[in-house]
UniProtKB/TrEMBL annotation:
Keywords (A to Z) from UniProt: Isoprene biosynthesis, Magnesium, Metal-binding, Thiamine biosynthesis, Thiamine pyrophosphate, Transferase
UniProt record similarity statement: Belongs to the transketolase family. DXPS subfamily.
Gene Ontology MF annotations: 1-deoxy-D-xylulose-5-phosphate synthase activity; magnesium ion binding; thiamine pyrophosphate binding
Cofactor note as given: Binds 1 thiamine pyrophosphate per subunit. Binds 1 Mg(2+) ion per subunit.
Protein name: 1-deoxy-D-xylulose-5-phosphate synthase
InterPro entries per UniProt: Dxylulose-5-P_synthase (IPR005477), THDP-binding (IPR029061), Transketo_C/PFOR_II (IPR009014), Transketolase-like_Pyr-bd (IPR005475), Transketolase_BS (IPR020826), Transketolase_C (IPR033248)
Organism: Duncaniella freteri
Length: 645
């Protein structure tokens, strides 16, 4: 069957003349549809060979053009939520020529980054922070009495606004009377299908359109005759309330919070968005503008399947065809997690799965396919996901909660307060642990070992391969307390062997013995370490011991005693921060060991901690980043050589 052609024109003559929003603002409004069309062509052509987030930016084209057209950026502030939809913002703010470097080492960040551009007002990457950050900026502008008046706009998606942090921001914004404009970019999608009652409510608002249009028109009349600023907030509220009772309509949730609501409008019609923004931009107080958009707009395959096209990888710009993944490749860690969970659930009816808006990213969708009633997508709410799991565990369920390492940072207090203090048997499956690659510093999962290690009663493990992940997941069922199993993004090195035996909690593995140097690893860095050791032993004639610690807590004291008695230098290696991670745990153990009275005459051996240094690591391929941080096979080899010299 012949593929549907999308007929993308690669030329962008008008866009080529826009090097900043000031250039855009010089254009007559009639030319904006062409700017939008060219932005879409640019995105399709560029992202087809330089992959990144696709569908969200495609849906936000008109919104982005209208924002930079109506507002005086960068003086006025646009705060993007998550920021994966901000590619057109980058293209309009002087970064068109550099866009082919998007998400690469030394290139543009895939998210707004204040280090990169004055137009990027705040760090973005994790969902739901834009309202709070925007409110902070709006309050700062009013405290500074900035002249001319500085507009602040937070742009947030329908899934991100359901996050707890966004609710907290709304709650505060409503109370503060700050001139914050919140734009709700509602495409009825998260990465996967959006969930939750707010989502249903937003869909319902669309059906209340007649009522909202009437309110908007009346507000326009008030504004035209300059009544808005004069009549005062109380009277506006009374006006709204009378209107509501006039039409006998239920109260709008945002209005109920004292945030003026406008919409829903067609967010993919640039003329409409420009008009509405012009109409409401000078209104006072917190406002929300609800725009309905289509995720993937303008590229049929993405419109039809926005979940696949959230971040599709490379594709044919004409047909949308994407390269097939070879079935010969070893499985992804996330898929090993997903299929093992199904296998465990088959024989354990008390097992349930929880994901915070990442069913396909974590492969929790495998459990959902087989056991939909035992799988819970709770939306972008990592804190809630953890506390919810605590509640489930308290009453006899066995929750496996799968969350990306960096997103789990959001739930730190919940882990301690709602799981660990009671020692509840929750299995934390921490995906995307270590340096994730192209998503960069907001998404690197490098802090988990450090932040979990200090929690009493927490068991922490990391598999060195896919088989070990399966073993650890099965073993977690035997534990009467919380356990965290962290594993990386991407594929295992080898296919699964198929055998599953339980492992002993707190026990590592001696991979090979040796006397001149001892290397302790955690997780998948074991492979590069093995390669480096082979080469170094061959080149130096020395013998090197290698242990896979497997558990960071409890540490294997038998292995550590064996290593301490060797009196040789020690290297620890982990795909995580060296400050507080596995290396630090070993250092503490050794300090205690050599400080004890019977060994006080003996000096502690030299110990080198390898891993992610104490700074934020940029984006790049995982291989590049491991190299940058010095713990790829080459870096490990060099360190070994320098020690053995
Ligand atoms: C705290 C947090 N959890 C999860 C994610 C992963 N994530 C990235 S985008 C996204 C969906 C966002 O949906 P929405 O806000 O509606 O924007 P859209 O992609 O639809 O434009 C999710 C869950 C994240 N970035 N941050
Ligand atoms: C924007 C965002 O946070 C996610 O889309 C993230 O980029 C997912 O990355 P994975 O490809 O690792 O699922
Ligand atoms: Mg959405």
């Amino acid at each position: 069957m012949e593929k549907e052609k999308t007929n993308v024109d690669a030329t962008t003559p008008l866009l080529d003349t826009i090097d900043s929003p000031a250039d855009l603002r010089k254009l007559p409004a009639e030319r904006l549809p062409q700017v939008c069309a060219e932005l879409r062509s640019f995105l399709i052509n560029s992202l087809s060979s330089h992959p990144g987030h696709f569908a969200s930016s495609m849906g936000a084209v008109e919104l982005t053009v209208a924002l930079h057209y109506v507002f005086n950026t960068p003086y006025d502030r646009i705060v993007w939520d998550v920021g994966h939809q901000a590619y057109c913002h980058k293209l309009l703010t002087g970064r068109r020529d550099a866009f082919s470097t998007n998400r690469t080492l030394g290139g543009l960040s895939g998210f707004p980054s204040p280090k990169e551009s004055e137009y990027d007002t705040f760090t973005a990457g994790h969902a739901s922070n834009s309202i709070s950050a925007g409110l902070g900026m709006a309050v700062a502008a009013s405290v500074h009495k900035d002249e001319p008046h500085r507009n602040v706009v937070a742009v947030i998606g329908d899934a991100s606004i359901s996050g707890g942090l966004a609710f907290e921001g709304l709650n505060n914004a409503a109370n503060s009377n700050s001139d914050l404009l919140i734009i709700l970019n509602d495409n009825d999608m998260s990465i996967d299908r959006n969930v939750g009652s707010l989502n249903s409510y937003l869909a319902h608002l669309t059906s209340s359109k007649g009522y909202n249009d009437l309110r908007y028109s009346l507000a326009g009349i008030l504004r035209k005759y300059n009544l808005i600023t004069d009549i005062g907030k109380g009277r506006i509220t009374r006006f709204n309330n009378s209107l509501k009772s006039l039409i006998n309509h239920e109260q709008n949730i945002f209005e109920g919070l004292n945030i003026r609501y406008f919409g829903p409008f067609d967010g993919n019609d640039v003329a409409t968005v420009v008009k509405v923004l012009n109409d409401i931009k000078d209104f006072k107080g917190p406002r929300i503008l609800h725009l309905r958009t289509t995720k993937g707009k303008g590229f049929l395959p993405a419109e039809k399947d926005p979940a696949t096209w959230h971040a599709p990888g490379i594709f044919d710009p004409a047909t949308g065809e994407r390269p097939q993944e070879s079935p010969e490749k070893p499985p992804k860690y996330q898929d090993i997690f997903g299929s093992t969970l199904v296998e465990i659930a088959d024989s354990h009816p008390e097992v349930v799965g929880i994901t915070a808006a990442m069913p396909s990213g974590t492969s929790m969708n495998k459990l959902a396919e087989k056991y939909p009633e035992r799988t819970f997508d709770v939306g972008i709410s990592e804190g809630h996901a953890v506390t919810f799991s605590g509640g489930l565990a308290k009453d006899g369920m066995k929750p496996f909660v799968a969350i990306y390492s960096s997103f789990l940072q959001r739930a730190y207090s919940h882990i301690i307060h709602d799981v660990a203090i009671e020692g509840l048997p929750v299995t934390f499956c921490i995906d995307r642990a270590g340096l994730v690659g192209e998503d960069g510093p907001t998404h690197h999962g490098v802090f988990d070992l450090a932040y979990l290690r200090s929690i009493p009663g927490m068991t922490i493990a990391a598999p060195r391969n896919g088989d070990e992940l399966r073993r650890l997941m099965h073993t977690s069922l035997t534990l009467d307390g919380p356990i965290a199993i962290r594993y990386p993004r991407g594929r295992a090195k080898n296919k699964l062997s198929g055998t599953i035996e339980h492992v002993t909690i707190g026990k590592g593995v001696r991979i090979k013995d040796g006397n001149d140097l001892a290397i302790l690893t955690i997780g998948t860095v074991a492979d590069d370490t093995t390669d480096a050791i082979k080469q170094a032993e061959h080149d130096t004639g020395k013998s090197i011991a290698h242990y896979d610690m497997r558990f960071v807590k409890p540490l294997d004291s038998d292995i550590l005693t064996e290593v301490a008695r060797k009196r040789c230098p020690i290297i620890t290696i982990e795909d995580g921060t060296v400050n507080g991670g596995m290396g630090s745990a070993v250092l503490e153990w050794l300090a205690d060991y050599f400080n004890s009275s019977e060994r006080e005459e003996t000096a502690m051996p030299r110990l080198i901690r390898m891993g992610v240094p104490d700074r934020f690591i940029s984006q790049g391929t995982p291989d590049q980043l491991h190299h940058l941080c010095g713990f790829d096979a080459e870096g490990i080899y060099k360190t070994i050589k320098s020690i053995l010299k």
